[in-house]
Structure formats: C-alpha cells, structure tokens
Design a protein that fits this description.
By secondary structure, chain A is an alpha/beta fold. Chain A has helices spanning 16-24, 44-60, 75-87, 103-112, 228-233, 243-258, 261-281, 310-319, 344-361; strands at residues 5-6, 67-73, 95-100, 117-123, 147-150, 152-153, 158-159, 171-174, 191-195, 205-211, 286-288, 299-304, 322-323, 334-337. In chain A, helix 4 (103-112) links the parallel strand 3 (95-100) and strand 4. The two termini of chain A are 35 Å apart.
C-alpha cells in the first residue's frame, strides 16, 4: 500500500496512526466482539468514548467550565441555520452582524436572512476575498444578537490573525478549517463551531462549543435536533448520534495530545506553511493569491505566473503522490491544505516539486 | 477475534463481509492512496460510490422513476422535523394526521406540533403499544397534508402487516427498523425514510425516498440542509455529506444483492423470526409482549413469566456471546433485534439458549 500526501481541503487526510488504530479495532472494539459502529450509543463502551472526547477537548483547547461541548448533526453548514435559529432572538429585534470574508460566510449570511435582520458589517468580496476585511466595531449595532466571522477561509487561504473585541456582543466563529491548529482564548467567543472533516475527523458532524448563557434563545420553530439546549441536556445523545465520527475524533485528539497538543502543532503548522510561502515568495514563477498579512497556515493558495502550465503542474504533482492540489474554482490555481495531520515532510515534498517544476518550465 | 451475535436494536450489527471489505480498504481506497473518508465528496471516486448506492437502491427496493433518493443529515429523528417542515404546507390549512403506534411516533408528533395542526387519528398508547392501532380512513381529514405512520416499532416489536390506502393523502412512513427487510410497493408511499443504523449502515444519516411532486412545499423557515429540494437538486451534496455512511450503505446493498435481494432476505427474516416466536409460543416460561397478528420480523420482544429471572437470563446469554438482548425500558424483558445482517444461526443460538435456560429454571 502506498499512501499519498493528500492536500485535499476536506474531507481531508487523517493521521496515519489514527487510521491504523481505527482499522485494528474495526471488527472488534476492545474485545466487545463488535465494532464501535455496531454497538449502542447508550452502551458503556460508547459512553466512555464520548466522555473521553469531551475531556480531551476541554484539555487540549483549554475550554473554560462555563462552556458546553455539543456534537451536532450535519457538519458546519447545518450551523449556518442553527446559529441564527438558536441565537438571533437573544435581542428581541432579531438582528445579527456578519463579516463576509469568503464563500462560506456568504452562504451563512444567505441562510441567516431567513431568521432575522442581517447586516454585513464588512466584506472583501470586491477583491475576491483575498483578505480579511477591515471591521469597525463602532459600526456594529450594539443591539446585534451576535457578530459572526469565519476564522479561516478555506477557499481563499486567509485567516483572522487577531480576533475582534466585541464587548457585550457574542462573537460566533466558524473555525471548521482551523480549530485546534492554533492557540485560542476561548473566552473571546460566544460560540465556536467546526465541521469535523478538515482537522478533526470524518464528515457529517459539527463540534459546537457554546457559552452556557447562550443556550436558551432558540426560536420556537427550531427543530429539536438543531436546538443547542437539547444537545446540552442530553449529552448530544437525544437521538442516535454519528458514533463513528465521535470515535474518530477521540482518536485524533489522542494523537494530538501525544504530539504535544495545540502549542506544538501550532509551531509545526507555522513551519509547514512557511516552507511553502517561502517557495512562493522567493520565486516569480509562483504568485500567492492571499494578501500576505492575512495568510492562513491551513490553506496555502497560489497561482502559476503562466496559467497555461497549471494542468501540467497538477498532473505531475499527482503522479508524484501529491494529491488534490487543485484550487477551488472561485480562485483557480493551486491550493495546498495542510491541516494538523499533514506532516512537515509532505510540505517539503511539495516545495521540492515546486522548485523542480519551476526549473523545468521557467 | 471472537465476534458475538449482536441483538442490539441500533446501531446494530452489520454483515461480517461488509465489515471485512471496509477494513481491507480502510487505509487505501481502490489504490487512491487514501481512505474513502479522507477524500473529497466531489472526487470522482466518491461520485462513483454515491451513484452506485442510488442505482442499487432503485434496483433492490424497486423504486419507480418518479421518486428521488436523498441522503439527509441527522438520522431518522431529524426527519421528525423535516417531514412537517417540508410537507405540512401542501395544504394551506397545515394539517397532518399521525398514527401513534409507539414511542418514536409519539416523538414525531411532539415535533410536528411546532409546524401545524396535528391530529392523532389512531393510538395504541393505552395498551402500551402492544399492537398497531386500528385506523379508520373515514376519520382522517381529507385536507390533511399527509398521513404519518411508523411501519415497524423497534421498541415494542410490532409492525404494519398491510399498509393503509390513503387515496390522495400522501402516506409518510418511518421505516428505520425495517427498510429492505420486506418487499414493498413504493407507489403506496409519498415519503419513506429510514435512519441507517439498524438495517442499512452506521449512524448519523437518513435515507429519504420521496415522490417528486412532494418536493416543493417547504416552509420558508426550513433550514437549507433540511429542505428536500436542496438535496434533490444537489444529489445530496450541497454540503459535505457523511461520506463514510454512504460508502458503508453501498457495501451493505452489494451484500444484499449478493444474497438474493429483498425477496430472499424477507424469506430468511420470516424464518429467523419464526424460530424465536415458536420458542415463545410453545412454552409457558416465555411470554410474547406484542399482539400476535402485529408481530415484527425485525424486533422480537418477550418477557420471562418469572420476571425475577430476567437479569440472570441476560447475563448468561451475554456470557454465551448473545449480546444486547435487554429490552427497552418502556417494555422491559427481552428484545432480540434480528435485522438483515443477523444470520439464521444467531437466531438458532438464541433459541437453543432459551430452551436450555428454561430447562434449568422452569
């Protein structure tokens, strides 16, 4: 078996140790005689899995006690509905402020409009989201039920380097493509959510971290299984949850802890990203697409100066085991998604390929 | 490794051939160099998976061309919200009729009340759901947007032997615990849905089969990812779907086809259930809890005449590799869930144990 370096944006590569562990117990979980996916979500074995997942998240993300961890069906985009349904009525005027820093923010806005009065308080759409737009907090209505941002923009390769101080307005952050890749002060946020399939596990589930005082504003039409209070009260087991995804996330968290936790991974992520950004910046053959000061460490986007060479670049990379480097259609070019699970050696292999390709085609 | 006979109600056992196949390609899907859970839901590899899943479902369930197959986030209970949100406005009076044949029907009713005027047109609650209640179609308001039933009641071990003729009112059926276990005329139904985790795959996703003319009645507050039209238009890939669950369902469907399809499995299921029901009926030591004419072939429920022996029965069964036989707390006693994946040998092993236990304790 040959495993490739998989630069796909998500569902993304998982650590090989995690995959091997899952495979080793796929037919018989810890001597039960059945797989973890074949036993009840209310069994003592699964109970131990979800409790340990909680514990590792509290520890690794340094989550304060006044926050709840929820595992919510449907991935990050289901949260585009769940966030306004659960939070827009915090103020009876049902207003919320959104920062439009990319395509997923735009989709979140489109969805939120069903439930209240949405203000786009900053947008970088006119420059095709090549930066995080400037946000003037003075222009945000103080009656906003929340302020919404996308912390890392997968498609465009940008991220918030610092997060805004929002005072009494809860800050809601879609962190799908970077949660646990960098240290955070959770206290800055009212809600953090992340689909699992980029940095945390397989697809289909979202991790939601919510400050307890925000649990009780759901609109009456909110489906029971999109109501945060339901998840908080029933330990995310009001119905049968995606037990495989929670189990896989636990393995990913154990791997993260074994590798030094978020502090160590953040350093490694910076090193990995710097390797590729240096290769871009020291060449006129490659052109970064994101404004330098907003560059992401998770998704590195660039173009070839001579666009006609792109297909050749991608196919030769693929042939060398550098998989899924094609940029999103909204940007074009190349995108290297280098989440926690991507080893430094994978980034080095990409850089070596870039230099070789440049030498042969410049 | 010793695999047990797993009688759990769900997440339930999957065919060993399916589990072994999934394990064999868990780290490297068909030579891609990555797992199916690590690659894009928009990759050609996953596209082939979802297309083949569709094709097998159309073939095995004999689904007519005027129906759509949707893979919807959140399992069957998310459908308790999605069905009324998508269908209750079919008639502007927003009425729907529900048959309350068990706990899951009750939960579906509780959820539907958020969205319209719900009539419970039949209920067997007073006899603790030991039967399917008598339904008089003459008493169903002809302006009902739909009539809702639970085709098989997992907790109570009952099922509809025939389905009601509802004329112009679309019949909606929760078939979570029996879909593909018996032959059906899909034309009798407007919507069939089933959480995967009993008979079709791992937990977290629902299969929804919907007649095309019912796709366009969603309430304006329906979240995009609970809107059936969204799934129908985007081939269930509007966002990143639960790719693992779809992949596993495909393997289950291939297994089903290899074993003769629904016709062959239905015969086997009847044989399996008859083995256990005969053991109950030929003994005064065991007492069936469901009315005989409504007995399910998927979930066999019974009590011990001497209730004080129950714990001993369950622990001795467990010690012999007969796993998860404890009945649901609403019924007590014993429940043997014997979905498609349970071999006849498992049912025979249970019957042998029952006879032995009776001999030692009668």
């Amino acid at each position: 078996m040959t495993r490739v370096y998989n630069f796909g944006a998500g569902p993304a590569m998982l650590p090989i140790e995690v995959m091997e562990k899952a495979r080793s117990e796929f037919l018989d979980y810890q001597g039960v005689g059945a797989s973890i996916i074949e036993i009840s979500h209310r069994s003592e074995e699964f109970d131990a899995v979800i409790n340990e997942t909680d514990r590792l998240l509290f520890e690794l993300a340094n989550i304060p006690d006044n926050y709840k961890i929820l595992y919510v069906h449907g991935g990050a985009q289901m949260q585009f509905s769940a966030v306004p349904m659960n939070l827009i009525a915090r103020n009876p005027e049902k207003k919320a402020a959104y920062v439009e820093s990319g395509n997923f923010a735009k989709l979140a806005i489109k969805e939120a409009i069903r439930y209240g009065k949405i203000s786009v308080v900053a947008s970088s759409e006119t420059s095709n989201y090549d930066r995080i737009p400037e946000l003037e907090m003075a222009e945000v209505d103080q009656k906003s039920s929340y302020l919404y941002i996308t912390s890392n923009n997968t498609i465009y390769g940008t991220r918030w380097q610092q997060f805004p101080s929002t005072d009494n307005i809860p800050l809601v952050a879609d962190m799908t493509s970077e949660f646990l890749s960098r240290e955070l002060d959770i206290n800055q946020f009212g809600i953090i959510f992340a689909g699992l399939q980029k940095n945390l596990g397989p697809a289909g589930l979202a991790l939601v971290i919510i400050r307890e005082d925000l649990l009780d504003y759901a609109l009456p039409e909110t489906p029971n299984l999109l109501t945060y209070r339901t998840y908080a009260e029933k330990h995310s087991l009001s119905n049968t949850n995606n037990t495989f995804a929670i189990y896989m996330m636990k393995l990913v968290l154990e791997w993260l802890k074994d590798h030094g936790g978020v502090t160590a991974l953040e350093l490694q992520n910076e090193t990995k990203a710097a390797l590729i950004y240096d290769a871009i910046d020291t060449s006129s053959f490659y052109l970064g697409t994101a404004e330098v000061i907003y560059r992401s460490t998770m998704n590195v986007t660039f173009n070839l100066a001579e666009n006609g060479l792109l297909d050749k670049f991608l196919s030769q990379a693929h042939a060398q085991g550098l998989y899924a480097l094609k940029g999103h259609r909204n940007v074009g070019g190349v995108r290297a998604s280098i989440y926690n699970a991507m080893p430094t050696a994978g980034c080095q292999a990409l850089v070596n390929f870039m230099k070789e390709f440049e030498k042969n085609h410049a």
